[in-house]
Write a structure and sequence with these properties.
The complex is a heterodimer. Chain A has helices spanning 16-24, 39-47, 65-70, 74-87, 98-102, 107-118, 133-148, 167-170, 173-184, 200-204, 220-230, 242-258, 267-271, 285-298, 318-327, 354-357; strands at 6-7, 30-34, 57-60, 92-96, 122-124, 159-163, 189-194, 211-214, 234-236, 262-263, 279-282, 305-308, 330-333, 347-350. Chain A is built from 16 helices and 14 strands. By secondary structure, chain A is α/β, with parallel strands linked by helices. Chain A folds into three domains: 16-130, Rossmann fold (3-Layer(aba) Sandwich), CATH 3.40.50.1980; 150-263, Rossmann fold (3-Layer(aba) Sandwich); 267-377, Rossmann fold (3-Layer(aba) Sandwich), CATH 3.40.50. Helices cover 40% and strands 15% of the residues of chain A. Chain B has three domains: 5-23 and 283-423, no CATH class; 32-165, Nitrogenase molybdenum iron protein domain (Rossmann fold, 3-Layer(aba) Sandwich), CATH 3.40.50; 175-267, Rossmann fold (3-Layer(aba) Sandwich), CATH 3.40.50. Chain B is 39% helix and 15% strand. Chain B contains 17 helices and 14 strands. In chain B, strands 1-12-11-10-13-14 form a six-stranded mixed beta sheet. In chain B, strands 3-2-4-5 form a four-stranded parallel beta sheet, with helices on both faces. Chain B has a four-stranded parallel beta sheet with strand order 7-6-8-9, sandwiched between helices. In chain B, helix 4 (86-100) runs parallel beside helix 6 and helix 13 (311-320) runs parallel beside helix 14. Chain B is globular, with a radius of gyration of 23 Å. The relative contact order of chain B is 0.15. Mean pLDDT of chain B is 94; it is low at 434-438. The chains are: A alpha/beta, B alpha/beta. Chains A and B meet through strand 1, helix 1, helix 2, strand 3 and helix 3 of A and helix 2, strand 3, helix 3, helix 4 and helix 5 of B.
Chain lengths: 379, 438
């Protein structure tokens, strides 16, 4: 019987609440996570490499039993207003974990009440602590754009945005810088990197782009929002290596011309289970498929390559994971998956991912974006 | 904006700030995962939404590759909430974990979470079934439910729950338990020295390596506790197993130490420590603290509650001996109001930092000259590389403990450390043999 809930040996991807805080981290706001305790140190310890020594604001509400049972929202309202008066953030993001979810906490209503009291814009982001980080990043970016982006700006030729960029998927600044440079080398101007190493002001002008590039599945929700509200098409794919980046840029040019959204890859090609795959890639969805494209270009057109990635609601099914690792000849994944290799002779190709192992292997994460990355050297 | 409070300006009830909660990049004390790994042959199963699982899983992973073998998870999903099948999921998941593990665990600690309380999950029914299915395994109901923290703090709860498997047994002379310690109490503990000299065997979860030895704790006559959060466990054992209980206060007051040591000796029918012994101990301790004062002079000190359970009481002791204590960093009020008022009298300018209050995020931790921190939290909050890197008293108790602390402070004064690298590591001296990997 399929049971995605049980993980006997393996870790878990990080949750939507960390995704929200990560996406909003550098924009001058204050993220408030409605939660009893634990989500704050989880985020600041394992999911936020920028925490030590910076002044960005993220807190939890410290929800307790009586406040939850009585539905006393005045506690969080007063606490947020009090802190906002002292810290003067540019905006406030309100998200939460599982208890607010099951007591039907009214994010929109409470956000309005806080905003009325302190005069600072408050973004309600109704997370529930049950989903993957990609969901949280997407919800937060969409809400931010809904509130702050100037949707009337006209697109400019050759201008793109990168959507879904946070340290959870892209770890360090140099990885993002290389990603930007790889597009710029091909004649594109990168307008906004949403949202890592980016300013509030550049994000406001997100509609300058004629195409949005969704470099992680975390960027899909804001991409769909911008498509619906501003007519900007999107292309899904991560620029991993020069061959893939060339292909991705070609797709961007096509989308700029016909205004249609498209994908770098044919996902069916890598999700069809095959016997003895040459390579299994486990990572965030867009990254996994993009890496699969890079591997196919490096190995051969006929190479048997599979991609496995966490579902936003269910994460990664450990039974499926163990079965596919056992079947594969080589597996490119985070080293923390190693306990799932018991009984397998597959070669482990180490590709750490902060969304999975947090800070443990941070120093080992290669610059996997841009032209200099050559997947062949790793295989 | 005020980032700290000056003690002369506040009353005891306002000593710790309220409102939104901040998470320092600096580690705190051990958490329930660290403590759970102390059980030899134990296996932990956390049953929570993914946002709660993330922290416990990575805390475990950071303890090293072998640590991941000690923990499994059952993710609570939206489907469980809608279908109301939390009990079935708990049972099915636990069975799967047990059947999949390469080695049969002796104890399975099942941690349910906040959400289970709100959905009124009848987990006791499942534990009953599991106990019948697996009679060779001790199942423990454990809790990672911070929403209940004001009534049942998770750490105090776990310290009690783990010992719930102990059953009434015939008591053995010459055997006692230390209850609720994360770290072994060795030669820097007066009580260990007294017991060892009298040939008494000490059972302490922090040193037990075999599950059968763990069960021998039920044969002990007396339980000794050194931390306030071990009180629930000791009370429970007193009621259920009729074991004695002596609470050894974490104190720097010589009379209080003597009083507790006397109670300890009496509980075992031992002769109390002689007056000569006590005088000698006091003299040695005074000599140690005087030497420390000469060594560090008026270098300011900051103290926090990750290093010692009662930071204000330590501040009081040091102030009485002429030291310049400039600040205390604390998360809650562990000290009495009486101690608070005495400290206020001795140093009205003492700064109090609320370790988890939102005001700490943008506090400017600068200071002039050298400053010595006692604990990682004070090292971070006061931005110093000169600090004593200990956690939760680190096995220090009594006169011997004070002398060792003096030695550690002197050592800290002479050696600047990499604060960032040290204070961000979780789980000080976690017990796994390979040590923490980060």
């Amino acid at each position: 019987m399929k049971d995605w809930h049980v993980h006997v040996f393996t870790s878990t991807y990080t949750a939507d609440v960390s995704g929200v805080c990560s996406a909003m981290y550098e924009l001058g706001g204050m993220s408030v996570l409605h939660d009893p305790s634990g989500c704050n140190s989880t985020y600041t310890t394992h999911d936020e490499p920028r925490w030590y020594g910076s002044e960005s604001l993220m807190f939890i509400s410290g929800l307790d039993e009586m406040t939850a049972v009585m539905g006393d929202d005045s506690v969080i309202i007063n606490d947020v207003v009090n802190a906002a008066k002292g810290l003067k953030p540019r905006f406030i993001t309100l998200c939460g974990a599982s208890i607010p979810h099951i007591i039907a906490f009214d994010y929109k209503g409470v956000a309005k009440l806080i905003e009325d009291k302190c005069g600072i814009p408050v973004l309600p982001v109704p997370t529930d602590g049950l989903k993957m980080y990609t969901s949280g990043v997407g919800l937060a970016l969409r809400e931010w754009m809904r509130r702050f982006a100037d949707l009337n700006i006209k697109p400019e030729e050759g201008v793109i945005n990168l959507l879904g960029v946070t340290p959870i998927d892209f770890s360090r600044k140099e990885i993002v810088d290389e990603m930007k440079a790889s597009f710029e080398r091909r004649g594109f101007s990168v307008n906004a990197v949403c949202a890592m190493g980016e300013s509030f002001e550049a994000m406001e002008k997100v509609c300058r782009a004629e195409v949005n590039v969704v470099v992680s599945s975390a960027g899909l929700l804001p991409a769909k929002f911008l498509k619906a509200k501003a007519g900007i098409p999107f292309v899904v794919g991560t620029p991993v290596g020069s061959a893939v980046t060339d292909k991705l840029c070609e797709k961007i040019r096509q989308s700029a011309k016909d205004k249609e959204s498209r994908y770098l890859y044919d996902s069916d090609r890598y999700t069809t289970r095959v016997e003895k795959p040459d390579l299994l890639i486990i990572n965030e969805e867009v990254n996994a498929f993009s890496m699969a494209e890079a591997a196919r270009a490096a190995l051969s057109e006929d190479a048997k390559i599979e991609a496995l990635f966490p579902d936003a609601d269910e994460g990664l099914d450990e039974d499926l994971l163990v079965a596919r690792i056992k079947e594969a000849k080589a597996v490119m994944c985070d080293p923390l998956f190693f306990p799932a290799f018991a009984g397998s002779s597959a070669k482990l190709i180490r590709m750490p991912h902060e969304g999975y192992s947090g800070r443990i292997y941070r120093g080992e994460i290669p610059v996997f974006t841009g032209d200099a990355f050559d997947i062949k050297k790793m295989l | 904006m005020e980032y700290f409070k000056v003690i002369k300006d506040i009353s005891y009830k306002d000593a710790v700030g309220s409102g939104l909660v901040y998470s320092s990049p600096c580690r705190g004390g051990w958490n329930i995962v660290h403590y759970g790994t102390l059980v030899p042959g134990g296996h932990m199963i956390f049953v929570c939404p993914v946002s709660c699982l993330r922290g416990v899983v990575l805390t475990t992973a950071e303890m090293g590759p072998d640590a991941m073998k000690l923990l499994s998870t059952i993710t609570v999903g939206e489907d469980n909430i809608l279908n109301g099948d939390m009990e079935e999921e708990l049972r099915r998941g636990t069975e799967k974990v047990i059947e999949s593990l390469p080695v049969r665990p002796r104890m399975v600690m099942i941690f349910t979470s906040c959400i289970h309380h709100f959905l009124t999950v009848n987990y006791q029914r499942i534990y009953k079934i599991l106990r019948e299915e697996y009679p060779d395994i001790d199942f423990i109901d454990c809790y990672m439910d911070p929403i209940m923290r004001k009534k049942t703090p998770p750490m105090a709860n776990l310290k009690r729950q783990i010992l719930r498997v102990l059953k009434p047994a015939d008591k053995k002379d010459g055997q006692v338990n230390f209850v609720g310690n994360c770290f072994p109490m060795g030669e820097n503990c007066d009580l260990t020295n007294l017991l060892t000299e009298n040939g008494i065997t000490i059972y302490d979860l922090s040193t037990i390596e075999d599950y059968d030895d763990f069960h021998k704790m039920e044969q002990s006559k007396v339980n000794f506790t050194f931390h306030a959060n071990a009180a629930w466990a000791a009370k429970d054992l007193k009621v259920r197993l009729s074991q004695g209980w002596v609470a050894m206060r974490e104190t720097y007051d010589y009379d209080a130490i003597d009083e507790d040591m006397k109670k300890a000796a009496e509980s075992l029918g031992l002769a109390p420590l002689s007056k000569e012994h006590i005088v000698k101990e006091r003299e040695k301790t005074e000599a140690a603290v005087t030497a420390l004062k000469e060594h560090i002079g008026d270098t300011p000190l900051a103290i926090d509650d990750t290093a010692v359970d009662r930071p204000l009481e330590l501040a009081l002791y040091l102030l009485k001996h002429g030291f310049k204590v400039e600040s205390v960093v604390m998360e809650s009020k562990a000290d009495s109001e009486e101690v608070f008022e005495q400290v206020k009298k001795l140093n009205p300018e003492l700064k109090i930092y609320s370790a988890e209050n939102w005001t700490m995020r943008r506090a400017h931790f600068t200071h002039e000259g050298k400053l010595i921190g006692i604990g990682a939290r004070s090292a971070y909050a006061r931005d110093t590389g000169f600090f004593v890197d200990i956690n939760e008293n680190a096995g220090l108790y009594g006169y011997a403990g004070i002398r060792e602390l003096c030695r550690l402070i002197a050592e800290a004064a002479d050696n600047e450390q990499d604060t960032h690298a040290i204070v961000t590591k979780k789980g000080w001296h976690c017990n796994l043999k390979e040590g923490c990997i980060i």
